[in-house]
Amino acid sequence: MLAQARTNWVILKTCLEERFVYRADFAFATLVRFLPIVTQVFLWGAIYSGAQARSESDEPTTLNSYTYHEMIAYYLMAMLARAFSSMPGLASGIARDVRDGTVKKYLTQPIDMLGYLFWHRIAHKLVYYVIATGPFALVFYLCRDYFPHPPDTATLLALVLALAMGFLTGFLIESLIGLISFWFLEVSSLLFIYMMLNYFLSGHMIPLDWLGGLGEWVEFLPFKYLAYVPAAIVLGKDGYVLGEGLEGQLLIEAIWILGLLALNRIAFARGVRRYGAFGG
Amino acid sequence: MPAIDVRNLSKIYRVFRKREGLRASIRSLFHREYEEIHAVGGINFTVERGEMVAFLGPNGAGKTTTLKLLSGLIFPTGGQADVLGHVPWKRENAYRRRFSLVMGQKNQLWWDLPAQESFRLHKEIYRIETLQFDRRIDELTELLEVKDLVGQPVRELSLGERMRMELIAALLHSPDLLLLDEPTIGLDVVSQHKVQQFLKYYQKERQITVLLTSHYMKDVEALCQRAIIISEGQIKHDGPLEEIIDRFSQHKVIELQFAGTEFPEDLGRFGEVFESQPPRAKIRVPRNEVLGILKRLLDSYPIEDISVEDRPLEEAMAELFIDSASRTPS
After folding, report:
1. What was the pLDDT predicted at B323?
2. Considering the domain B250-310 in this protein, what is its CATH number?
3. ipTM metric
């Protein structure tokens, strides 16, 4: 157990060192990812002021029960959740390793590929947070008035748990897509479809409670944990308040994680059996 | 008990067969044709502990597939293998801690980091004691003459230096079995020699079992006493290296140095003249006619020096491979 923890620590440390090799490129990519946040804030501002101009009432306009402030708060929280749950390069990286044979090292060395990729991803995220914390803090500070009153400690803990589980959910979904490469070698189209669905079904594009009847079905999918749930916790949406259903939501997420983990294990075991190790 | 015991091991790959042209490409979207490639066809062999065996064959003969089967990378279609008391494709950690696979064309080290970082990772993955680890690093970096390079990012190393680092990473956990797939491919003569010398010394010192594939016969001659030749998934020869030439080469080479200024133009009547630099010439002659030809040569010309040699192993192998390829029905 202790030896395994030490191995994981060294994997994490080595991955961190590797991430820092191309620090300039990484920092630039991270900062550039903030641009869409700014444009999105302006876009929602334009939508709401357009709606307000057509409205005859002086009351602040609401769209599907969201005020402009709530919408911005929702969007920023969804972006924060995405900072945990998005896994750029994970599935395509697994597919590349399978295609070019790099996966051999996981199969011939006493190492668990998924565990290794998990710690690699943690390192990826840690470096990302180091670089992104400043800009995130600045954006949240500038938009502080859009947020409702600060959440109490218990809700804050639930939020942290939801973000951490969002990380696990995102990791396991993408690694599962990557493992499909044992069958198809190339998963880029599949990944593209997943990204599109994810953008829509996770609540990244618009809140899931805007989807009407479809939203009820989306509730049963794991994608909502990637963006919508953490935002709904902060906004205190129905069913996402402690004592009023949030515990159940988090429990279901935990069950999803276990299910996805089991699927990953099965896909890996079967994929490796199928593996042809072509190309020398 | 042998280190490797292979019984009727076979591997059939099912590969997609695409016909030529756009129409065929469109048709293949709906109806796919597959072909079965018999990469390894029921082979048997054993390797004793501490033995160093060359595994030879032309491209596509089944060498690498066999190494992949023995390292547990792929599952066989049939047959059995017992390697160090384990079934390789069960991929037990206990087995993976006891062998190493080095592929000359594949990089296992972290490309952007110094090799010492990869070594440290290996230390943890293989649970190597710190004292042992330090001792082995010292020993291996010294033997392979890369002590000053371990702190340099791998991407900045030459191919030869990188391969030596790969070998260190592969040997850090003191494996009982080393599977080497073309470890000297692409290396210059100096690096090749260093790797050869190192492997020779290390194997003798540690008495580890080594199975080596290589297209460089110099590697094979320098390192192995025994060779297994595989072609079209079948074992064609398993025995001492020198037997290969006796068994498969139908020719010998007569090297001549003529006396005086006269250099005969009609040497072709004795055999195939494949090198001619007056006053020297080399003739390839059938093995069973060597004595007669020697006598006729000595009777016909003033000869200052003469020697008869076996053909180089490389040529004998090439002849064998071409021969088996030509016998393959197309």
Report:
1. 65
2. 3.30.70.1150
3. 0.80
